[in-house]
Amino acid sequence: MSAPAGHYQPLARLPEGKDSILNKAFVGPKQPIIDGLPTFSSPYEEREWVKGHMAAAFRYWGKLGFGDGLAGHITVRDPVKPNHFWMNPASEHFSMITKSMLVLVDEHGNICPEGAQLPINAAGFNIHTAIHAARPDVNAAAHCHSVHGKTWSAFGKPIEMLVQDSCAFYNNISVYNNFGGVVLAKEEGVNIAKAIGPTAKNCILQNHGLLTLGQTVDEAVYMFMTLDRLCYAQLLVEAAQASGIQRTLIGKEEAEFTSKVAGWFFGHLSPEYKLILKETKGEFLQ
């Protein structure tokens, strides 16, 4: 697994220029309405930020009911050792995750002393290590067996451009059509990485569930939630159409235009992070 060293790229910065699409999306004082990444004084400081947001991301998934036994995993590339990644232990519920529970694993599956000494999900390691190797342009990957995501995955089809939120996935979603069972072999992880391709950040794993990528854990996790809800919407539309009601799809030009803003908006976990921080009094940061 190889990746260039250095800090992560900021997920979002409002582009300069009064004619920017994103600048037109806001009114009022020009303040950072949605937080981007802070400036880090060292990779070690950045590591702590990553771990804190990763723990919050699991708490968010717990609130959404995404916990499913030992299944489900998020990984984030380590800023200090870019060929290592942080991962959740296999023995803890999403709603209980703290920074100190996160495991640092290398490309060979060795548990490193900088993190918790706890077991990790082998299938998750095989999927994520292949993705991190194939996609050095992303830092985070998220996968779990959400009900709506795994239900829609049985069709082996991407979601359609049904509503405004769908446009965040315009030309940004792939499908892995081969279900090879629980991913206990490295080859299956490689096959999944190939199915995602060099540019897409979202994938529907047929008969399995959803997988999302991001520059940050915030982006990967929030896009996962958005995609799961869109799978739910797609299922409702399919059911309505079966009773004779016809759907209307968003046109290609409109979807492409909207994707430039929608993809940016849905890459942020900032409001949810602040809520979890308040609700838990920062307990997840321990």
From TrEMBL:
User: Which NCBIfam families does the record match to this protein?
Assistant: PRK06208.1
Origin: domain of life: Eukaryota
Q: Extract the Pfam families matched here.
A: Aldolase_II
**The protein's name in its UniProt record:** Arad-like aldolase/epimerase
GO function term, MF aspect, one:
actin filament binding
What would be one Gene Ontology cellular-component term for the protein?
cytoskeleton
Instruction: Please report the stretch or stretches of sequence annotated as the Class II aldolase/adducin N-terminal domain.
Output: 52-235
Q: Which InterPro entries would you find in this protein's record?
A: Aldolase-II_Adducin_sf, Aldolase_II/adducin_N, Aldolase_II/adducin_N_sf
